[in-house]
């Protein structure tokens, strides 16, 4: 066999590379198992054992392994397998624009920014592009003829590149470049912060073309701490403080107004606002000392439209901010400060910190010493000179850390922050300040949190489904193809080894959908072998020798295999391009698997088989039970196509009607919202729980938010979805939702369950084992990308089939079949989502399933089309109908075996792969079934109907010899 030596060399070299990449994973796992065996569930003892075992080194000659290095290089596991947090941060581009315009108050600019904020909620365009569109439209409508280089806009000292006569297009280019650079700075700052947190194998990436940064931190448990560290701007600001005498008249007015208009201010009319302030207990430079339970009511009153309208001129721009935490002398209350603002709310001192460290004051209390940069030092000197004897507030992200009186001017930029810190809180602040400031605020627009217990369960479920699927394939392939099946199994094992090795070498992350992708790759590997072996059987039945039969089997099967692999690779590419998170991981795994399947199942398998045959040894390609299966099967498919058209038409109409009437159950990926998977210690009633939560999740105007509770897997687990406060992307909003969820479920939890336990339950305990949040803008992007992915896949497949088969009729038939499959799957999800005991939401996973099914279906179609193309060249004496029937009938063995093994694999994942994959696999099951059907009865039938040139001979037997012309229109 030509090239055998080269294939062998490549296989060995690739194998050694994969072995070298996988050894660290094996060694780290070995050490951790040893530590667990000794320490059990004791985390402190476990860490001691790890430290002890880490000193050992394993010398393999070509490499040395020790635990710390192996841990760094081991294969990355996704959140769904390891637990942890994944967040999508978005840098506030409005802040960046304000900064570049030096916080200009130009009315056209302000209106354009406000309009952009609204438009951005339903747009996939970058913020800055929408801003320029809105600015141009408003500028034209108002006839102001402002130039972007105007000093009130971007022609200021902040942007030295912009001159007074710089054209608008050039200014836009400069601003975009500056904003991109600022996002790059934010990326570096966030990566530095994560390093300081000691995260193991974090993954930080910029999302191309956006101001978003994706952060994945497997194994992290303190989710609030992570979010706080990532969102904190580290932009220390210093403000003048207004005190009680200046605020008292306004507070008295509010107290009187609440009694009249309390309802419209969000509180009861009986509330006495002045009593909530507890001015008699105030011991600081604040303006109120409010009980923690009353802070929400005070916020509603101060921020209400009525409250805003009553402000006198001296406090028109005042910002009310809360203290960082309760004072040590009163742990049940929080101090409210009145910060003297201005029209653009720019702080008098807004400088970065060059250095920060923990220190202690004269009373041995923990404080943070810091040194400002040169700009901040100058501004700080001016502010302290102006306010000697008066209080100045030190704020960070809208919280007041301290507000002492200025004793004298501070000329050198050195200052001290005291905030009743614990040692840990001070360290967090120092870490944040030391990593540098973000150029603008950051908000979490999407977040996924998976508890460690669910991660381990996912690993167990994934391994079980993987093992069962693998075993089923081995048994079936050897049963059906005998000795040749053994070589197929060997090639499949090598394939798996290569997939894991390559994934590790490219630093890919293995996820639960990734495991599903690997299992599906095994089905693809079986498909490849089935095509080869079925073709080899045909050659043997034609009377050829075993050696010649295998040669021709590989030769004639190659075209179909290449087409099938390339169309599936196209689908994987579309998924990778438009997918995010786990779906991108699924696509990467599928893509690597397809390439390795071709190498192992075609090239390596060929080398092994011919090595045996060239030695004169026999290699069976069937067993006694399977030798003649499908051999003489012939069905008049074309003659029965009208029945198939009727069935498909009925199914399509029912599906479209259901979609129009019942719609879908959209996941939060597409609508925005929060999902929580909550585990209880006993069975719970989903409807009762939902009823309780509906009364709790009410907006400030008293309206109910959307709430749904549904059994998830076992009857002691619920998946709870809500859109409550989803437009608020702050950490406080996340905590508020979790607190309300805890309150609503408290009666169903064990009596001793605390809020802390509920949010981060240990293994086996009750509480939130997984949560997910998707903001409205991200949901809109995901939905748009999902639609684009399906359209791109259909378009790409149409073009590929057209190029490969050179007849538009084949492309039309293929795409019509794919559209048919997609509509029926959508119809099934519309009809059944209320009744099935597992998740049937339309979300990212569903889009991935649809595209995977399309890839599988077109693969099936290509095999049949390839045989039709072959027969068109060789059997010109047949009628076109007979030729199609012959082609489909001759590939029935391949069609059955591929579909049967794939369905076996999907059933294994569906049953044993865990609750998270059931909806995904259900779509795959429907899709594989109808994909096989549509390849025969839709794709082939439509291609036939558009290829025939005149009235077709009604005889569709395989021995017909009509002189029908086979040229297409």
UniProtKB/TrEMBL annotation:
Keyword check for Protein transport: yes
InterPro entries (UniProt xref): SecD, SecD/SecF_arch_bac, SecD/SecF_bac, SecD/SecF_CS, SecD_1st, SecD_SecF_C, SecD_SecF_C_bact, SecDF_P1_head
Membrane topology: Multi-pass membrane protein
Record keywords, A-Z: Cell membrane, Membrane, Protein transport, Translocation, Transmembrane, Transmembrane helix, Transport
Residue ranges of every copy of the Protein export membrane protein SecD/SecF C-terminal domain listed in the record: 443-609, 764-947
Membrane-spanning parts: 461-479, 486-503, 515-533, 554-579, 585-609, 643-664, 785-803, 810-831, 846-865, 896-914, 920-944
Entry annotated with the keyword Membrane: yes
Domain (SecDF P1 head subdomain): residue spans on this chain: 352-440
Domain of life per record: Bacteria
Job of this protein: Part of the Sec protein translocase complex. Interacts with the SecYEG preprotein conducting channel. SecDF uses the proton motive force (PMF) to complete protein translocation after the ATP-dependent function of SecA.
NCBIfam families xrefs: 2A0604s01, secD, transloc_SecF
Subunit structure: Forms a complex with SecF. Part of the essential Sec protein translocation apparatus which comprises SecA, SecYEG and auxiliary proteins SecDF. Other proteins may also be involved.
Similarity field: Belongs to the SecD/SecF family. SecD subfamily. Belongs to the SecD/SecF family. SecF subfamily.
Descriptive protein name: Multifunctional fusion protein
Organism: Chryseobacterium ginsengisoli
């Amino acid at each position: 066999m030509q090239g055998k030596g080269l294939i062998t060399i490549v296989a060995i070299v690739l194998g050694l590379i994969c072995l070298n990449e996988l050894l660290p994973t094996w060694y780290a796992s070995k050490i951790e198992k040893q530590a667990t065996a000794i320490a059990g569930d004791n985390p402190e003892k476990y860490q001691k054992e790890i430290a002890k075992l880490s000193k050992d080194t394993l010398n393999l000659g070509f490499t040395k392994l020790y635990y710390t290095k192996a841990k760094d290089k081991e294969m990355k596991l996704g959140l769904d397998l390891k637990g942890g947090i994944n967040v999508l941060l978005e840098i506030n581009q409005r802040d960046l624009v304000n900064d570049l315009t030096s916080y200009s108050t130009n009315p056209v600019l302000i209106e354009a920014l406000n309009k952009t904020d609204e438009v951005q909620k339903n747009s996939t365009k970058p913020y800055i592009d929408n801003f320029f569109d809105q600015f141009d439209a408003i500028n034209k409508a108002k006839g102001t003829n402002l130039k972007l280089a105007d000093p009130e806009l971007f022609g200021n000292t902040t942007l030295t590149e912009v001159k007074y006569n710089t054209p608008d297009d050039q200014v836009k280019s400069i601003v975009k470049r500056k904003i991109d650079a600022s996002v790059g700075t934010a990326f570096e700052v966030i990566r530095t912060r994560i390093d300081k947190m000691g995260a193991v194998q974090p993954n930080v990436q910029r999302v191309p073309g956006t101001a978003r940064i994706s952060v994945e931190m497997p194994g992290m448990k303190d989710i609030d701490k992570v979010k706080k560290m990532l969102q904190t701007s580290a932009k220390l600001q210093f403000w003048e403080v207004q005190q009680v005498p200046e605020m008292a008249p306004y507070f008295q007015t509010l107290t009187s107004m609440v009694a009249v208009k309390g309802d419209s201010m969000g509180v009861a009319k009986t509330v006495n606002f002045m009593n909530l302030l507890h001015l008699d207990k105030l011991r600081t430079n604040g303006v109120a000392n409010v009980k923690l339970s009353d802070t929400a009511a005070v916020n509603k009153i101060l921020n209400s439209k009525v409250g805003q309208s009553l402000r006198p001129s001296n406090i028109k721009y005042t910002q009310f901010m809360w203290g960082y935490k309760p004072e040590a002398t009163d742990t049940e209350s929080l101090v409210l400060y009145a910060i003297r603002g201005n029209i653009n709310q720019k702080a008098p001192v807004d400088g970065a910190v060059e250095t920060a460290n923990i220190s202690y004051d004269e009373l041995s209390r923990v404080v943070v010493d810091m040194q400002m940069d040169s700009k901040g030092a100058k501004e700080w000197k001016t502010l302290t000179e102006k306010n000697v004897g008066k209080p100045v507030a030190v704020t960070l992200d809208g919280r007041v850390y301290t507000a002492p009186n200025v004793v004298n001017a501070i000329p050198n930029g050195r200052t001290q922050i005291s905030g009743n810190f614990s040692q840990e809180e001070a360290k967090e602040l120092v870490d944040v300040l030391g990593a540098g400031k973000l150029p603008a605020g950051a908000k979490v627009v999407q977040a996924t949190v998976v508890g460690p217990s669910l991660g381990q369960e996912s690993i167990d479920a994934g391994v079980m489904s993987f093992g069962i699927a693998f075993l089923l394939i081995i048994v079936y392939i050897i049963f059906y193809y005998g000795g040749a099946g053994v070589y197929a199994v060997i090639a499949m094992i090598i394939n798996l080894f290569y997939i894991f090795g390559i994934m590790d070498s490219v630093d890919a992350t293995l996820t639960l959908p990734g495991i599903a992708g690997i299992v599906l790759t095994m089905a693809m590997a079986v498909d490849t072998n089935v095509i080869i072996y079925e073709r080899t059987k045909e050659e043997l039945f034609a009377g050829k020798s075993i050696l010649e039969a295998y040669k021709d089997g590989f030769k004639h099967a190659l075209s179909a295999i290449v087409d099938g692999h390339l169309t599936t690779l196209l689908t994987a590419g579309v998924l990778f391009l438009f997918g995010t998170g786990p779906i991108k991981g699924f696509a990467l795994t599928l893509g690597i698997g397809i390439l390795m399947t071709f190498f192992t199942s075609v090239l390596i398998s060929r080398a092994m088989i011919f090595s045996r045959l060239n030695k004169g040894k026999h290699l069976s390609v069937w067993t006694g039970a399977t030798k003649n299966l499908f051999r003489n099967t012939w069905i008049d498919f074309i003659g029965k196509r009208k029945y198939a058209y009727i069935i498909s038409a009925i199914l399509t109409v029912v599906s479209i009607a259901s979609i129009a009437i019942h719609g879908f159950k959209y996941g939060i990926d597409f609508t925005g919202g929060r999902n929580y998977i909550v585990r209880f210690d006993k069975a719970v009633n989903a409807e009762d729980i939902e009823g309780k939560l509906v009364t709790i999740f009410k907006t400030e105007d008293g309206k109910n938010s959307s709430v749904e509770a549904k059994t998830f897997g076992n009857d002691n687990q619920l998946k709870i979805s809500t859109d409550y406060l989803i437009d608020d992307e702050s950490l406080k909003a996340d905590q508020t939702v979790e607190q309300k969820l805890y309150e609503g479920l408290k009666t169903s939890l064990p009596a001793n369950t605390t809020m802390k336990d509920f949010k981060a339950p240990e293994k086996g305990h009750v509480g939130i084992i997984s949560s997910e949040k998707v903001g409205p803008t991200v949901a809109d992007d995901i939905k748009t990308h999902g639609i684009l992915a399906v359209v791109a896949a259909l378009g790409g497949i149409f073009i590929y089939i057209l190029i490969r088969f050179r007849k538009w009729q084949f492309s039309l038939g293929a795409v019509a079949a794919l559209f048919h499959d997609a509509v029926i799957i959508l119809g099934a999800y519309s009809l059944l989502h209320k009744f099935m005991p597992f998740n049937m939401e339309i979300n990212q996973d569903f889009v991935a399933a649809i595209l995977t099914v399309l890839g599988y279906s077109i693969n099936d179609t290509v095999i049949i089309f390839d045989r039709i193309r072959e027969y068109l060249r060789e059997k010109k004496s047949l009628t076109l109908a007979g030729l199609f029937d012959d082609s489909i009938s001759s590939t029935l063995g391949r069609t059955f075996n591929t579909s049967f093994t794939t369905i076996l694999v999907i059933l294994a994942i569906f049953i044993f792969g865990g609750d998270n994959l059931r909806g995904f696999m259900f779509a795959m099951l429907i899709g594989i079934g109808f994909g096989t059907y549509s390849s025969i009865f839709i794709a082939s039938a439509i291609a036939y109907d558009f290829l025939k040139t005149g009235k077709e001979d009604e005889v569709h037997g395989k021995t017909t010899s009509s002189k029908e012309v086979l040229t297409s229109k």
